[in-house]
Amino acid sequence: MRTDTTAETIRTPAGTEVVLRNCEGFEELDACVRLQVETWGYNDGDVIPKRMFIVAQRIGGQVIGAFAGREMVGFAMSLPGVKAGKMAGELPNPYLHSHMLAVTPQFRDAGIGRKLKLYQRDEALSRGISLMEWTFDPLEIKNAFLNIHRLGVIVRAYTPNFYGVSSSRLQGGLPTDRLHAEWWMDSERVKAILNGSPQAPLEIQETIVIPKTVSEWKASATGVSSAMAVQAENRRRFLDAFARGLAVVGFRVDTEGNGAFDLARLEQLGVL
Q1: CA Rg, the chain, in Å?
Q2: Assign residue 250 a region: left if phi > 0, alpha if psi is -120 to 50, beta otherwise?
Q3: pLDDT grade for 272, boundaries at 50, 70 and 90
């Protein structure tokens, strides 16, 4: 586990060396802003400006870059947060909210996103922070697979239209519904998943499916109504399941590319 802010060098499947490290200076923070716009297509009303990245670094957040030579090919940004103690008199609990992660198109599917999350984890644990949270679109199969299957997050909250109207081209004009990921980074479950250790089977009580074609529907004027119908039905099912005490504990992709969220009773995990 990383105990300082030293750089880490990784090699992509194509053989390119990529260095992960904390971003430094205005030029690298400007590169974060540019990559943000290139990834989501935000207009000026939605884009996170450079000064917010500066503040994130100053107040205990993270701005971590992935560099191939001098070129930034990815970044992750988080902000610090505090949760009230669960018991009377208990001190507040610090955590990190990972607000953004982006990778340039030519370096996607090369493991950079997962490596950035692991760098975030190591840096956070070195400061005694064991919880990281973030939101993600329930209709994005690749993100769900990374977050749940590869990193071991659990999900027990869903917010309809979390950000309101978004200028992101990835949203396809749909409401910005979001699942809330909880990454208990020092839990035995997460450590086992990251190490590839076998997991005890859980009693799955419900499965919620995302059709592979939903991403195509979101990007098409003729298909957006179909995507919205899937979103509305899955929203209803997630909200109902979470109200009954279920949580997302697994995610699968079938041979045709459809995604499936597996939900179980949270007490089976022993995470919290």
Answers
A1: 19
A2: beta
A3: low
